[in-house]
Write a structure and sequence with these properties.
Chains A, B: Pfam families: GST_C_2, GST_N_2. The structure is a homodimer of 223-residue chains. Chain A has 223 residues and is of the alpha+beta class. Chain A folds into 2 domains: 74 residues, Glutaredoxin; 134 residues, Up-down Bundle (Glutathione S-transferase Yfyf (Class Pi), Chain A, domain 2). Helices cover 54% and strands 7% of the residues of chain A. Chain A contains 8 helices and 4 strands. Chain A has a 4-stranded mixed sheet with strand order 2-1-3-4, covered by helices on one side. Chain A is globular, with a radius of gyration of 17 Å. The model of chain A has no long low-confidence stretch (mean pLDDT 97). Chains A and B meet through α3 and α4 of A and α3 and α4 of B.
Chain lengths: 223, 223
């Protein structure tokens, strides 16, 4: 059985959980408190970050969400999530980069890292300027999601892909905080409702950080 | 002829330039001052960032360094830079992530963005705390390069790969500032000397930002 080391509000971990479920693959989950820097975990991934996938017990660990996602797609090509042609894959990967780099820098780090990670690790205090920037920046990204899904059905084209998975992985972390202004962005909300209602998404909706419960609408498919 | 929109000290741009040369592909270069937010460029890449590759004049633009690199590898599989097996590719992509995410956050942003980008764009003033952090963080990464190249010859294995390209793309930007303490890291220096002497690297050594010349050793193969 595969084993995924993860954290609840880590977008990279959520990406891999969603992807494995979309591929109908069985796996076990283990929460890794990376800030404790457990030597056994550092031996698996010297970067000290989740996600890490152990493809088989005692096997070679695979680290880095992008590397894991590409490895899964290559190893399990059924139910493709990366398109059929080189150009389709380029568009999907462009949007993966959009969310993993740009959205991450402009929104996820400013909200999730400031409000949750700093509290969990006990390192630093939330920076109110960063949080303010996160609130301001998210609108532009929700507009872009509405723009894309209106023209293409899903973000990168007619089919659900790793671009949708990646965007939803980030947004669901922000949504755990109740910080996504869905009501002001009906187009993005319509897209998210479709993604959220996929069976692969269900386990994420049961995530619960002790002492930091999500808002009620977080797990509600009719939010 | 392919056209690459780039900037001199953009690690993503340098990655694609190196990769195209390693594949013996012909291309034209055009510097894009992304901070001017030229509408024609934003139409090619709404993220407003380099690199962007126009595969053919008027053709579909490909944006995001990772997406471009994967597209080139798929379209031109000769002289492979991403390994042969899924596990080899996973290791190469893990190290690409190491440099594009971790090294970028801990070193490149603290040194290159603070010292060069802020001056070029005229936005903000260099943050001395960030620069100090960049100087401190680079040692650990140079140690890791020495550790890997000592055991494997190249960073991800026996062969030169996109992991070496990515690491060298970042380090060469920092080296343009003269901020790589090579003399304290002979193992990393030995690896870099091998990469720097590849024919694909030569055009990067001629890069010259007006008013911000590189130190003399930057272009010297015997540095």
């Amino acid at each position: 059985m595969m084993l995924l080391f993860h954290q609840f509000v880590s977008p990279g971990s959520r990406k891999i959980r969603l992807m494995l479920k979309e591929k109908n693959l069985e796996f076990d989950l283990q929460i890794e408190k990376t800030w404790e820097r457990r030597p056994e975990f550092l031996a698996l991934n010297p970067a000290g970050e989740v996600p890490v996938l152990l493809f088989e017990p005692g096997g070679h660990p695979i680290s880095d969400a992008t590397a894991i996602a590409e490895f899964i797609e290559e190893s399990f090509p059924d139910r493709p999530l990366l398109g059929q042609t080189a150009l389709e894959r380029a568009e999907i990967r462009r949007l993966i980069g959009w969310f993993d780099v740009k959205f991450n820098r402009e929104v996820t780090q400013n909200l999730v890292d400031e409000k949750i990670t700093k509290r969990l690790t006990g390192i630093g205090t939330p920076n109110s300027q960063a949080i303010k920037a996160g609130y301001a920046n998210i609108h532009y990204h929700l507009d872009y999601i509405a723009y894309l899904s209106d023209r293409r059905s899903y973000l990168a084209g007619a089919d659900f892909s790793l671009a949708d998975v990646t965007a939803a992985a980030h947004l669901s972390c922000v949504d755990y905080l109740g910080d996504v202004p869905w009501d002001q962005h009906p187009g993005a909300k319509e897209w998210y409702a479709r993604v959220k209602s996929r069976p692969s998404f269900r386990p994420l909706l049961a995530d619960h950080i002790p002492g930091m419960p999500p808002p009620r609408h977080y797990a509600d498919l009719d939010f």
